[in-house]
Description:
The chain is built from five helices and 17 strands. It is an alpha+beta fold and 278 residues long. It folds into two domains: 129 residues, Diaminopimelate Epimerase, Chain A, domain 1 (Roll), CATH 3.10.310; 103 residues, Roll (Diaminopimelate Epimerase, Chain A, domain 1), CATH 3.10.310. Helix 2 crosses helix 4. The radius of gyration is 18 Å and the shape is globular.
Amino acid sequence: MQQKNTAGLPFRKMHGLGNDFVVIDTRHGPDVMTPERAKAIANRYFGVGFDQLVILRESNQADLDVEFWNSDGSRADACGNASRCITRLILEETGGDTARFFTGHEVLTGMRVDDDLFSVNMGHPQLTWDQVPLSHAVDDLMNLPIKGAPGACGMGNPHMVFVVDDIESVDLRAIGPTLEHHILYPQRTNVEFLQIRARDEIRMRVWERGGEITLACGSGACAAAVVAHQKGLTDKKVKMELDGGWLEIDWRDDGVWMTGPATHVFDGTMSEEFLSAL
């Protein structure tokens, strides 16, 4: 991603299925992010607005080092939909066939499927209590001692996955914040609700840690597919409908592959006036 050095702070706005991102390339400008500044940029009325902020840096181990921030100013180690957007940016910049980037959790590999679709290997799921992580050991990771018996899975970030009969009846805004801060999750958690339609099809809604209800969550979709298969409800390859559209998740021997679109919306520059007030 090439951006001109200019007054203010250049950025790129992108989204994956409506899960939207502000991307700042510090290779071509200042690295000035703080929790307070990230939270201000995330404000959809007084700032730019995003579900996650993506900071790109030079890397000694991959094409890029990547840092994710949530809309509440906290940090995240994984973001699946943003990873597809990063894959697109790297491939457009290098002209190569594959992209490699370090997310703070591990080096991920992505590739283009066609003009609109990109695939990323999100890595192997974390399926022990201390890797998720949970606050203590539990007897059955796929049936936590929480009402509704959700499953737990880590995808570089923690997830709590419920399977329900009627997903539209779930009041996600009411229960999401409470579940995010459940005592069993010391680092808080993303919360996913699934309705199984077939062995190869799932409907999902999500409350994101450090955010709110989002139209899609790539790492959540990966975790949800893993939990659904571990519970014996689906195959390892599924298509998944989220509020913002469809993803394909394929749990292979080398990791969980996620395929979906990555959209470039516009490029812009945050003004010095805006930045000086932060």
